[in-house]
Amino acid sequence: MPKKYFLSILLLIWVSTNSFAQLVLDNQDIYEAANSVNLNSPYHTTLSFFYNLEEGNYKPENAAKTLDLSDVESKNGERLAVKLKQIFEGKGILIRTNDIPNEQNYSDSTSAQDENIYYFDKKKLPGIFLKKTGESWKYSAFSVTQIDKLHSETYPFGTAKLLNILPKIGNEQYLGLHLWQLVGLFILLLLVFLAHWVFTLVVDKLILYLFKRYGYGKVGEDYILPVARVISFYLIVVLLSLFIRVLQLPIEIWSWIVIVFRTLKPFLITIIFYKLADVVAAYFTKLATKTESTLDDQLVPLMRKTLKAFVIIVGTLFILRDGLNLDIIPFLTGLSIGGVAIALAAQDTIKNFFGSVMIFIDKPFQVGDWITSGDIDGTVEEVGFRSTRIRTFRNSLMYVPNGKIADAVLDNHGLRQYRRFYTTLTVTYDTPPALIDEFVKGLREIVLAHPDTRKDMFHVYFNNLSSYSQDIMFYIFFEVPTWGEELRCRHEILVKIVKLANSIGVRFAFPTQTLHMESFPEKKTLVPEYSGGYEAKLNDFLQSELKRKND
């Protein structure tokens, strides 16, 4: 496989030797260019310019004749011509003779005034174009004035000086490349490895050391280090894109390298922001842990997913536009039109999404709350974009669309300040009224003595005569946060009630039918005998049961 790629590169280099720098042509083009400086059409001017700047036919004075030097000093013509060719090379602009108009009166139909001008590439080089002056086509006076500026932009940070230094190494050709180009490639690769080593040392050692020193070692290792590594790769790509253009590689290779570099830059930036989403999410996760609500704990993962989706979408658009040089306007237009159809087909999905937004805004419940609504009855486990997961008391998992929850009437048991406990205590009809009074007093003392009951709001009254019992309403509230705590309190209260009843002789009734018969001398009646002294018995219970707990 490596041999195959190597042979492909050699083939590209060999093909590139049959072209003029950025110009791809055939033998007929070479014949027409070799005759003389011809300025009759954009086609002939372009051939004359590149042909006279080739190594085998280097005549910069002839190439300067293709420039409109009316706004600059004519003595700078040769220098500007060479710089213009270097701009074409640095930008990686591939010009094909078949695409250049061979008409003396050619006019650009896209221009406002339908002028006699020709642009090589309006996106990459909007300021460089040919213009008909009199009967001759030349690089316009405006383009000539822009050459120095464009050259410094194409070769920034002093890299332009290397264009004059490297060729002095030697022009011998090996594998289709000059010796100075091969030496430059070797130096560039060496610099890449050196830069990678330096960045790795700085990122993995220095940054991680600083985070560990200030107590954020795990944060640095899990979140900051992955971002820093991608940034180091991005800086290496930037350095490569700056220096490799100095080598003036064959255009067939260089045009593809330019595309790769243009694509890598927005791609790596997208990865950087994708990983930064984890850093932002980690920060908000730390803030969410400081709040009492658990709903914001669910909001953080949703925010992280939303940020990542947004980064991917925006990054893809930049890769298509800046990297692959595609026009994304028709794509966005089609996407907006298709979005209407998608929105109509996905009404329920959109409804559920906005339902989740309303849940996070209104906060009708939070994770861990027990909610009830129709068939919904369970504890909230997770709130997602589309649905909410609810763990039922059968331990099954219920997925409820957020749109349905947003429109439903919810009973949130988890937001209760107090948990109500209501029951009816039934005592037999043979219980004397005085005993019932003492029993009710004892029940109220049980409520007041319990630490988790609401003391300012409870009702204990003898309030009903049913078909088989005398009924006492027992209506109280517990101040506890969970259902488990409520069950514990119920248990403690009911145990105290049973003990109270046993202590003072209260019998609980249940559905029965009683047949009363005349008592016999040798038999005792089944109806218990109440001897009185109920208040003393109650005091004994209060002292033995309730006061003992307070001691």
TrEMBL record:
<keyword id="KW-1003">Cell membrane</keyword>
<dbReference type="Pfam" id="PF00924">
    <property type="entry name" value="MS_channel_2nd"/>
</dbReference>
<dbReference type="InterPro" id="IPR049278">
    <property type="entry name" value="MS_channel_C"/>
</dbReference>
<dbReference type="InterPro" id="IPR006685">
    <property type="entry name" value="MscS_channel_2nd"/>
</dbReference>
<keyword id="KW-0732">Signal</keyword>
<feature type="transmembrane region" description="Helical">
    <location>
        <begin position="328"/>
        <end position="346"/>
    </location>
</feature>
<keyword id="KW-1133">Transmembrane helix</keyword>
<feature type="signal peptide">
    <location>
        <begin position="1"/>
        <end position="21"/>
    </location>
</feature>
<dbReference type="InterPro" id="IPR011014">
    <property type="entry name" value="MscS_channel_TM-2"/>
</dbReference>
<feature type="transmembrane region" description="Helical">
    <location>
        <begin position="223"/>
        <end position="247"/>
    </location>
</feature>
<feature type="domain" description="Mechanosensitive ion channel MscS">
    <location>
        <begin position="348"/>
        <end position="413"/>
    </location>
</feature>
<keyword id="KW-0472">Membrane</keyword>
<keyword id="KW-0812">Transmembrane</keyword>
<dbReference type="InterPro" id="IPR045042">
    <property type="entry name" value="YnaI-like"/>
</dbReference>
<dbReference type="InterPro" id="IPR023408">
    <property type="entry name" value="MscS_beta-dom_sf"/>
</dbReference>
<comment type="similarity">
    <text>Belongs to the MscS (TC 1.A.23) family.</text>
</comment>
<protein>
    <submittedName>
        <fullName>MscS family membrane protein</fullName>
    </submittedName>
</protein>
<dbReference type="Pfam" id="PF21082">
    <property type="entry name" value="MS_channel_3rd"/>
</dbReference>
<dbReference type="InterPro" id="IPR011066">
    <property type="entry name" value="MscS_channel_C_sf"/>
</dbReference>
<dbReference type="InterPro" id="IPR010920">
    <property type="entry name" value="LSM_dom_sf"/>
</dbReference>
<dbReference type="GO" id="GO:0008381">
    <property type="term" value="F:mechanosensitive monoatomic ion channel activity"/>
</dbReference>
<dbReference type="GO" id="GO:0005886">
    <property type="term" value="C:plasma membrane"/>
</dbReference>
<feature type="domain" description="Mechanosensitive ion channel MscS C-terminal">
    <location>
        <begin position="424"/>
        <end position="502"/>
    </location>
</feature>
<feature type="transmembrane region" description="Helical">
    <location>
        <begin position="179"/>
        <end position="203"/>
    </location>
</feature>
